[in-house]
Amino acid sequence: MLVCRKLKPIRISTQGGIGEEHLDGIKRGIRRVLIRARVAEHIKLNEQWNWRDSDYCDENKTLMPYKSLEWHINMARGASKVLGHLNAKILLNSFLEDPSYKTDIRYDLAIVNEPLHWSSDDNRIVIGVGRDGQGAVISIAYFTDFLLSAGEDPKKNSEFQLMTQMLVMHEFGHVFGLFPGNGKIKPTDEELRDTHCQNDCVMFWRIELERSKRIQSQPFCNSCIVKLKEYFENP
Fold first, then answer.
1. 3-class SS letters over 46-89
2. What is the pLDDT of residues 140-155, one digit of tens each?
3. How far apart, in whole angstroms, are the C-alpha atoms of residue 134 and residue 142?
4. Which residue from 54, 104, 118, 141 has the highest number of Cβ atoms inside 10 Å of its Cβ?
5. Virtual CA dihedral for 26, 29, 33, 36, nearest 10 degrees?
């Protein structure tokens, strides 16, 4: 029997400047995770592109707390320890601290076009972060070189969609209980590798183009598929 407290909608919000051409892979990736976890019929997607509540700023055009993705991003930008990057952990924390999170029960997915670093204690550059039971933040900034532009090989667009698809699948694997980490503030590369799947799987510790092409028809290994299902079956 599925555990109802885990069957909550996913609120998807995007930073300004991210268009529909960026989102095909991401939406496909979310659907594929939900299908493999056998909860696609029970978890709704609440798409709020460039999310802003009606009262997101005051009469002075000041952003109001928790009323827009812009406000959350400003928090992450202001707390960044790396120039030009967002603090991913601060961004996740700000969603968790949102008063509406207590009444509007959900998973959050924030899609940004600025690069990320992990936390105030760790300047490691990351492409996404997922937190067990809460949600994820992913950045498309690292994959824009794959995007199709005039005169370039059309395969770059499909590679962009593949990489963003694999990224969101990886992070929502974490959200749905796969490899939650070892809790260390500044894990080494070896420790990160050891706390991820060791198989040819989307939950490998790095998202790489050649691996993504190789596993695109079967992204999750059998072991991870079993664990995904168990996440919703167990209390």
1. EEEECCECCCCECCCCCECCCCEHHHHHHHHHHCCCCCCCEEHH
2. 999 988 876 645 677 7
3. 24
4. 118
5. 160
